[in-house]
Amino acid sequence: MRVHHPRVIAVAAVLVGISALYPVTNLHAQTSGEVRAQELRVRAEQGDAVAEYTLALMYADGDGVEKNDVEALTLFIRAISHAFGEDYDVYAEQRDTLTARMTGEDVAEARRRASEWESTHEP
Questions:
Q1: What is the value of pTM for the model shown?
Q2: How many beta carbons lie within 10 A of that of residue 79, not counting itself?
Q3: 60, part of any domain
Q4: Domain membership flag for residue 80
Q5: In this predicted model, what pLDDT tens digit does every residue of 37-58 receive, in sequence order?
Q6: Residue 32 has what pLDDT?
Q7: Domain range enclosing 61
């Protein structure tokens, strides 16, 4: 018979006690993509063009977030409005590529959302 170290038994008892406080059905382990998206959203809300662009790519690809072309285009439009130089060109190219596969209604909705965001945030 194997004898367990008292500290191991104590730690196990604590963990079992803690686990009883958190029902397994309510646990939701976030993926690294979800965590990254949350962090980017904070920066994007502050008008950070790189964060807006990166988050737009995530929405366009469904990487860590649910795929959503309208949200992706909204973020590309916002990123372009905050970008300069080569970044502007890269962001605009991604916007154009995405726009080509979207319906006119969806493009209009993304533009409306971007315009609404810009009107409620200082430049």
A1: 0.74
A2: 29
A3: yes
A4: yes
A5: 999 999 999 999 999 999 999 9
A6: 82
A7: 32-120
Does 27 map to a domain? no
Give how far Cα 102 sits from Cα of 18, 37, 44, 75, 113, Å: 48, 23, 23, 15, 15
Residues in the chain predicted with pLDDT less than 70, given as ranges, are 1-30, 123
Sign of CA dihedral 70, 96, 91, 121: negative
Q: For residue 4, give every residue at least 6 positions away whose Cβ sits within 8 Å of its Cβ, in sequence order, or none.
A: none
The Cα-based distances of 17 to 14, 100, 107 in angstroms read 5, 55, 52
Please, what sign has the CA dihedral across residues 89, 92, 98, 103?
A: negative
Residue 12 lies in a domain: no
Number of independent structural domains in the chain: 1
Residue 59 · residue 65 · CB < 8 Å:
yes
Residue type, 52: E
Amino acid at site 84: F
